[in-house]
Each structure stands twice: as structure tokens, then as C-alpha cells.
Design a protein that fits this description.
The structure holds two protein chains of two kinds.
Chain A lengths: L1 H31 L7 H35 L5 H5 L5 H12 L9 H39 L6 H41 L2 H6 L3 E2 L3 H5 L9 E2 L2 H32 L2 H16 L2 H22 L9 H26 L2 H9 L4 H30 L2 H6 L17 H9 L8 H31 L5
Helix pairs in contact in A: 1-2, 1-5, 2-5, 2-6, 4-5, 6-17, 9-12, 9-14, 10-12, 11-12, 12-14, 13-14, 14-17, 16-17
Chain B lengths: L7 H49 L3 E10 L2 H4 L7 H6 L2 H13 L3 H9 L6 H11 L7 E7 L2 H8 L15 H12 L3 E5 L18 H32 L4 H15 L2 H15 L7 H25 L3 H9 L4 H30 L2 H5 L20 H10 L3 H32 L4
Antiparallel strand pairs in B: 1-2, 1-3
The chains are: A mainly alpha, B mainly alpha.
């Protein structure tokens, strides 16, 4: 709420400067009968931007930094004996203090925690006062300076355009920043993970059995039990993706061929969006469908044939995921098949071939790179898919090729490890980041390869 | 290939012979295509059928009508209608007494069982009623209370009378009481007033989607406020302002890569950057919206760029010709003309964000939160996550409630997509 009021008052100040600047420019025109360089509202907008932007910048820096600074400063108020003790962990201490700042008190915290929390609260008050003073005064001062600048010769339009152009440029940098943030967050934690667990054990180990460090340290007889071999996860991901492809490739490809070659335009207009609905359904809905409709169905029909289907099976998750990625294959392949020049088809018909022969022998080979790319994109979608496997594939890290058993995947392990409270120091939590890193690498590699395939063969027929 | 020379007559005979086979092959391919499409449509129909058939009944539940004597002394002992006073009151006791007067349970054990027939939200319901309308005090009014979820399941036929008592979740006694209530015509099946206005609850009969719905709206508005301006600004910069050089190429590659990154990774980023480094609280719509904004940004940028590219250069040239500056060309001509395309892309991106679950699990929006969030910094959850949580609960009734929540979610997604299609059809211009 505090931030909201502060931001609105800064906005109000800059709006006032807008009207002031606008009026001043209008008055200049009226009094001097002089031609201004720019239209009057540009003078107003200039005052507005000049007053608003620096204040906003300062506000964001302050709000982001204050917690970081407080966290550094609070270290002084943690008693030495606590710091010296064996299981001292600053993150946990900080969380304790933060909790009591927010009034969430579990049990009776030690005296120094409540003290530190009180100090913290006093800092918050101070920093709020400082932020208000600095933000408002910056808005006023810079707005006033901008306002002062307004005169007949001042080229306000150019100035405004410069500012807007830089805003546009800065916003396009966000994409880069996001990528950096993703890489940064994943790579750093992964490095820490690989310092604890050797990477060859992670990549080639066949047992996945993460345990919290606490259990190991406590000497509860579980030492050395936790193992981080990711092969079962990769195998599970692979198995489910294969099942999904077995569903989606035939259905998607034949639909694409039919829609682009055989269907009347009316059928096309009707069925294409219908297939695309499948891509728009939230994955959690698919997960629910897989867990509550498909899995019991498979289980009961499996028992008819004397097969023992696990209640959470790779088959259920894979089938439903296959349904989900049908439109990725059908839509993209349809576009690619449509892009094959009509002259090629006409040449085929001219030689007396039937539609079937034209499609199989001429159109499909011509469209093959695009079709392959669409399948690769669908696979990368399947590999990164989370909710369906979390809800329907189970969590048991079985190394199996039997689709009737429960398997687990990279994404579902990430979710299980990171949902809820985690201890950032433990190998278990860090392993999720290492998994995420492999996930990113795999999906990006597939996308690059798909793009490469398309680029390499695209212009063959033009 | 055989190199034997054949006469035209032989050749034409050969073709004639093979033609039936070739036609059949052609028809077969056509058939495969039809089968494939009907399979896909079938999947869609089965999916919708299974959700709607379960979800439809999730909007309804069983109620029992009891005569409640609104005794002010007992309900509101302090007499000021404050939460405290109503909490101290004996509302549940009054409800139980009214219930007992009908079913006449004998002994303490029977009474204890009978108390569970009416949902535990009964006192809250009475408190709400008297708050809305204090004139109820002193009257005896018929009030409808939700039945407990097990009894609801029994009435729906999921818990069978024939099952032996030891394997049933409700005892023979309770069934006897229910029959008694039914005979008196006190049990009714009605549109549930909890599903749309209730919040997360451990009691399935009182659970509703209001909290998750508001959380979704808050998260989505944060997402929109961040992603739309940023996406449009980036698209304008890349299409209209920036020169083609290494930096813009790098930005483009980045955007395409971001579009391919699995959504769960955005959640990890949100956890590592926003929560652990910036120290933002967990479970709040602000962080959720920021994560989803970064996730939908590529979608918005890519479609906005396509929309800008579709504006013909002649429009720009005409504007330049009468002396507009670059920014005036962009803001007065290009953006208004590209707006329908940009909006369509944005709506599709928002639909994607509305249905997204995995990244929000990472940043803790999965917590059990009973209060409806009032602002973007209150802990909350969103519809898809609520669906995920309910799907995990064991109680039978949650399946119907989950399906009902899915129907609401799908309803929103379908109307958003329909809006996007409508916008595209209505405002699209062919040059």
C-alpha cells in the first residue's frame, strides 16, 4: 500500500508538470506571438517524462536494494555465539528474522531474533521516509528543471523522441536480461550441485534417490543413501515422449495431409481451429484427465487382458501428452505442405499420377524438412511438459522400458523438489537446478536443430 | 526398371490394370486422413465430455433445510454483531438442536455422529445471515445448510447403501437419519452457493473458487501490465527503430529461444531471482504475474512484430511525406494500424498465462490459502493451481468441484480465444 501511494503521488506530481509545461508553452505562443519549435503538448510531455522517470528509477532501485542492504546490516546483530555454532546458516536466520518482522511467530523465538526484528522494522520505517523524501524531491526538482528549460528555442519534440526511443531500446533489452537471469539462476546453482556430486555420477548414474542432507548428517542410518543418477529420469522422459509421438505423429501427420490435400475448404475452415483447441487447453486439465479418466480406464482394460497396469503409468501420461501435441504437428506440417508450390503437384498430375502418388512421392519429400522440424518442436514441447507427468506419471524413479509402470521425468522431479519449502544448501534442492540445466540444454538444442533443418532446406523450391 | 520395350497398347493395358489398385490406394490415404481427424476430434470430445459430465454436478450440491430460531442472546451474546461476539455465540449448537429435533438421535454417540451431517460451515452461514439482515433476530426461519461431503456423495450414489457398513464412509445410523430427513422433504439438490463464492477449504462441501479466481485475475493483470507495454515496445524497437546489426540479431535469437524454454524453467528463474535474491515474498500474485509476463513476452513480441510488418510501407511513406517525424509515424500511424494484431497476440498470450500452472508452483502459489487476496502482495493462488491441488485431494466431492473449476477456467480461455478471433476478423485490414 505504501508503494502504491508513493507511486501515485509521484505520478500526480509529473501530471501537474505536464499541465504546467503545456500551459507555459501555450503562453509563450500567446504572449510573444512567436513560433515554437514543437507543438505545445510536447513541452508538457517533456516536463512529465523528466519529472517522472528519475523518480521511478530511484524508487525501483530503493525497493530492490533495501532488503539486500538490511540483510547485510543485520549480520551485526546476530550474537557471536550463534554465528560460531556449528549449524549456523545465514539464510535460515534471515528467514527467522523476516518471519518475526511479518508477525509470523512460530513457537518462541530467541531474544536476539525479536531484537533483530525490531531493529529491522525500525529500518523499514526509516527507509520508507527516506524513499518518500528522495522520490518526491527528485520528481519536483527534475520536473522544475525541465519546466525551466521551456523556451521558444527549446526543441522539445526532439528531446521527447530521444527519451521515448531509449525507453523502447531499454525494453527490448529485457529479453536479453531474462535469458541472462535464467542462465544465471540455473548455472550457478548447478555449479554448486556439481561441486557436491560429480557430474558423471549425475549424468550416468542409474539410481535416483535424493534425500535431504539433514537426514544424512543426523546419522540416522541413511548416510550415503542419496544418489543422484539422472538416467532413470532421462529414460522416463524419453519413454513418455516416445509414447506421445506414437500417438501424435500418425494422427497429426495424416490430419495435415488430409487437410491440405484432400479436404474441401469448408472442412479446412472447420477442422483446423478444432484441432488447435487441443493446444489451447491448459496442461493441468490434461493432467486431471490423464489421472482420473485415462489411467483408471487403462487399468481396468489392462486387467481384462491380465496385464497389471500401475495406477500412475507412463502410458496414461504419454497418451494424453500425445493428444496435447497433435496440433503442434498437424498445424506446422499443414503449413509446410501448403507451402510446397502447386507447380510440383501439377507436374505430378501431368505425368498421370494419382493424388496419393503425388502426395507420397512429390509433396511429402518436398515438405519433409518442415515436417521433421515440426516433429522436433513437438518433442521439445513434450520433454518440457510438466503438469501431465506430475499428475499422471508418478514419482517413482524406475529405470524401465515398460510403459505400464510408473516412471518419473526431469520436469516432474524439478517440481517435486522445488515445491514447498526448500533448503538452498542441500544437494537435493540443488539437483533440481542441475536437472533444469539439462532440460534447457536439451530443448534449446532441439529447437536450434529444428531451425537449422528448416533453414537449410527451405529455399529449395523457390 | 525393366528395359524391355513395350508397345503403347501393352502400356495402356498395364495402366488400366493397375488403375483400380492405385485408386484404392488413393482412397485409403484419404481414409487414413479422415480417421486421423476423427480420432483427434474424438479425443477432444471425450476430454470435454469427461470434464463436463463430472463438472456439471460440481456446480450443485445437496442442502438440508432446517428451522432456525434466531435467538439473539445465544447467537450474538455481546449484542454488537461483531465477529468476536458471533464467534462466541452458539450458532452451531442451535443448528444441531434443530437437526436433532427432527431426527431424534438417542445417546451421546448417535448425537456426535448426527452433528456431522450438516457441514461445519453452519455457524459461519448464520453469522453471515444475521450480519446482512439483523431483523432476522427473534424469528424462526427456514435456512438451507450444505450437507457434509460424504453424505452428499451418498445421495449422489457414489457411496452405495449395499456396501457393508465397515467399508462405507458413513454409518447405517447416518443413512437412517438421512432417510428421515428425505421423507420430510428437507433435503434438496440445488445450485451450490459455495463453488463460486467460497474459497479454498479442507471441507469439500464448502470449497469454492472465488479466492483462486481473484488470484488469477490479479496475477493476470500484473502480467498484462508488464508484458503488453514491454512486448509492444520491443516489437516497435526491433521492427521500426533498430538497425539490423549484431545486437538486434542477438536480441532476436534471445526472444526465439525464450519462446522455446519450458515454462517450468521460468518458475525456477522466478524462485532464484525474485524470491531468493530480491527477497520478495512467496505466493504473491505480483511475483506470479512477473514470471508469467516474462513467459508470455515472446508470444506478444512475435505477434506484434508480425502485425507491424503487415502495415504497408506506403502508409509510412505518406506520413513522412507530409513531414511527420519518425516517432510520429510510429505512434500516429503504424501502432493504430497494427493494434488489432498486437491485441490478438496479447490475448492469446494472456490465455496461455491464465492456464499455466508449473511456474506458479515453483514460486509457492500452491500454498493453502483460505483468505481471498485483496491486492497483488497478498498471498494467493490461481485457478489452475487450485485445480491441481483439488485433484490431489482424496475426497470424492473434490473431483466434481475440480471439474467445475476446470469448466470455469475453460470457459474463460474459450471466450478469450473467441475474442481474439473476433478481433482479428473484425479489425483486420487487407492491404
Amino acid at each position: 500500500m505504501f508503494n502504491f501511494y508513493l507511486l501515485s503521488s509521484v505520478l500526480l506530481i509529473s501530471l501537474i508538470f505536464f499541465f504546467l509545461g503545456n500551459n507555459r508553452a501555450k503562453n509563450l505562443v500567446k504572449l510573444n506571438q512567436k513560433n515554437l519549435h514543437s507543438l505545445t503538448h510536447y513541452y508538457g510531455v517533456y516536463s512529465l517524462l523528466v519529472s517522472l522517470l528519475p523518480a521511478l528509477g530511484i524508487f525501483f532501485i530503493f525497493t530492490i536494494c533495501d532488503d539486500l542492504i538490511f540483510a547485510e546490516l543485520i549480520k551485526k546483530y546476530i550474537p557471536k555465539e550463534v554465528v560460531a555454532s556449528k549449524d549456523y546458516n545465514f539464510t535460515i536466520v534471515l528467514a527467522q528474522i523476516n518471519n518475526s518482522v511479518e508477525g509470523l511467530i512460530f513457537g518462541t523465538p530467541p531474544k536476539w531474533v525479536t531484537n533483530a526484528a525490531e531493529i529491522w522494522i525500525s529500518w523499514i520505517h526509516k527507509s520508507q521516509i527516506i524513499t518518500v523524501i528522495i522520490c518526491i524531491s527528485t520528481a519536483l526538482i527534475s520536473g522544475f528543471l525541465g519546466y525551466k528549460k521551456i523556451s521558444g528555442n527549446f526543441r522539445s519534440r526532439n528531446a521527447v523522441e530521444k527519451i521515448v526511443m531509449s525507453i523502447l531500446a531499454v525494453s527490448s533489452v529485457i529479453a536479453i536480461l531474462t535469458t541472462i537471469a535464467i542462465i544465471f539462476s540455473v548455472v550457478f546453482e548447478s555449479i554448486r550441485f556439481f561441486a557436491l556430486i560429480p557430474y558423471d555420477e549425475f549424468l550416468f548414474g542409474t539410481v535416483w534417490n535424493p534425500q535431504f542432507e539433514g537426514a544424512e548428517r543426523a546419522g540416522s542410518g541413511q548416510e550415503g543413501l542419496s544418489q543422484y543418477g539422472a538416467i532413470p529420469l532421462f529414460a522416463g522422459t524419453f519413454l513418455i515422449s516416445i509414447i506421445a509421438l506414437c500417438v501424435s505423429v500418425p494422427v497429426g501427420l495424416f490430419s495435415a495431409i488430409y487437410l491440405s490435400e484432400y479436404a474441401t475448404s469448408k472442412e479446412r475452415v472447420f477442422f483446423k481451429p478444432l484441432l488447435e483447441i487441443l493446444a489451447g487447453i491448459p496442461t493441468v486439465v490434461y493432467g486431471f484427465f490423464a489421472a482420473l479418466t485415462v489411467a483408471p480406464f487403462l487399468r481396468s482394460s489392462g486387467s481384462i487382458f491380465g496385464l497389471d497396469v500401475a495406477s500412475e503409468s507412463a502410458l496414461a501420461a504419454g497418451l494424453v501428452m500425445g493428444i496435447m501435441i497433435i496440433p503442434f504437428i498437424s498445424s506446422l506440417s499443414d503449413d509446410v505442405i501448403n507451402a510446397v508450390p502447386q507447380s510440383l503437384r501439377d507436374a505430378g498430375y501431368g505425368l498421370g499420377s494419382t493424388k496419393n502418388e503425388t502426395v507420397i512421392k512429390i509433396v511429402l519429400p518436398a515438405a519433409l524438412p518442415g515436417i521433421v522440424a515440426s516433429i522436433i518442436l513437438a518433442v521439445s514441447r513434450a520433454v518440457g511438459e510438466t503438469m501431465i507427468v506430475v499428475m499422471a506419471a508418478g514419482l517413482a524413479a524406475n529405470l524401465t522400458a515398460n510403459p505400464l509402470e510408473a516412471v518419473t521425468t526431469v520436469t516432474s522431479q524439478i517440481v517435486t523438489i522445488l515445491v514447498g519449502d526448500q533448503e538452498f544448501e542441500s544437494a537435493k534442492t540443488l539437483s533440481a537446478f542441475a536437472l533444469a540445466l539439462t532440460l534447457i540444454v536439451i530443448t534449446l538444442a532441439m529447437n536450434f536443430y529444428a531451425l537449422h533443418v528448416v533453414k537449410k532446406y527451405r529455399e529449395q523450391y523457390e | 526398371m525393366n528395359n524391355k520395350i513395350i508397345t503403347p497398347l501393352e502400356a495402356s493395358n498395364k495402366v488400366k490394370k493397375s488403375i483400380a489398385k492405385r485408386r484404392a490406394k488413393d482412397n485409403r490415404l484419404k481414409l487414413y486422413g479422415r480417421v486421423a481427424i476423427s480420432l483427434a476430434v474424438c479425443f477432444l470430445l471425450i476430454l470435454f465430455y469427461s470434464i463436463f459430465s463430472k463438472g456439471y454436478s460440481g456446480f450443485f450440491q445437496y442442502y438440508v433445510t432446517l428451522d432456525i430460531n434466531f435467538d439473539r442472546e445465544r447467537i450474538d451474546p455481546k449484542g454488537d454483531l461483531s465477529d468476536n461476539s458471533l464467534f462466541d455465540g452458539e450458532a452451531s449448537k442451535i443448528v444441531n438442536e434443530s437437526l436433532f429435533s427432527i431426527i431424534q438421535p438417542q445417546g451421546r454417540k448417535a448425537k456426535k455422529q448426527a452433528k456431522k451431517i450438516v457441514s461445519s460451515g453452519k455457524d459461519v452461514r448464520i453469522a453471515k445471515m444475521v450480519k446482512n439482515d439483523p431483523s432476522l433476530f427473534g424469528t424462526t426461519t427456514k435456512v438451507k445448510f450444505a450437507l457434509d461431503d460424504d453424505i452428499d456423495s451418498f445421495l449422489r450414489g457414489y457411496i452405495k447403501r449395499e456396501t457393508p457398513e465397515s467399508e462405507r464412509r458413513i454409518s447405517n445410523k447416518i443413512i437412517e437419519y438421512i432417510d428421515k430427513l428425505n421423507e420430510e422433504g428437507r433435503i434438496s439438490y440445488e445450485f451450490s452457493d459455495y463453488i463460486l463464492s467460497g474459497s479454498a477449504s479442507g471441507n469439500p462441501e464448502m470449497a469454492g473458487i472465488k479466492g483462486a479466481f481473484i488470484g488469477s485475475m490479479l496475477t493476470l493483470s500484473v502480467c498484462l501490465l508488464i508484458a503488453f507495454p514491454l512486448g509492444v515496445a520491443t516489437a516497435i524497437y526491433l521492427e521500426e527503430v533498430a538497425k539490423k546489426n549484431k545486437i538486434t540479431e542477438f536480441i532476436e535469437v534471445n526472444i526465439n529461444n525464450l519462446a522455446a524454454v519450458p515454462s517450468v524453467v521460468f518458475g525456477i528463474m522466478g524462485l532464484a531471482i525474485f524470491i531468493s535474491i530480491f527477497g520478495m515474498p512467496r505466493s504473491i500474485p505480483l511475483v506470479g504475474g512477473m514470471v508469467l509476463a516474462l513467459m508470455t513476452l515472446p508470444t506478444i513480441i512475435i505477434s506484434s512484430r508480425a502485425a507491424i510488418r503487415a502495415v504497408p510501407p506506403s502508409v509510412r511513406d505518406a506520413a513522412y511525406g507530409i513531414g511527420a517525424s519518425k516517432l510520429q509515424v510510429i505512434f500516429h500511424h503504424v501502432i493504430p494500424l497494427a493494434m488489432p494484431g498486437m491485441l490478438t497476440g496479447t490475448i492469446i498470450g494472456m490465455a496461455q498465462a491464465l492456464g499455466e500452472t508449473a511456474p506458479l508452483l515453483m514460486i509457492g502459489m500452491v500454498a493453502f490459502i483460505v483468505d481471498v487476496p485483496n491486492s497483488i502482495v497478498d498471498p494467493g493462488t490461481v485457478l489452475p493451481v487450485q485445480i491441481f491441488m483439488w485433484a490431489d485431494f482424496a475426497e470424492r466431492m473434490f473431483i466434481q468441484k475440480t471439474s467445475a473449476a476446470i469448466i470455469v477456467l475453460l470457459g474463460f480461455l474459450i471466450s478469450m480465444n473467441a475474442l481474439a478471433v473476433y478481433l482479428r476478423k473484425k479489425l483486420e485490414r487487407r492491404w
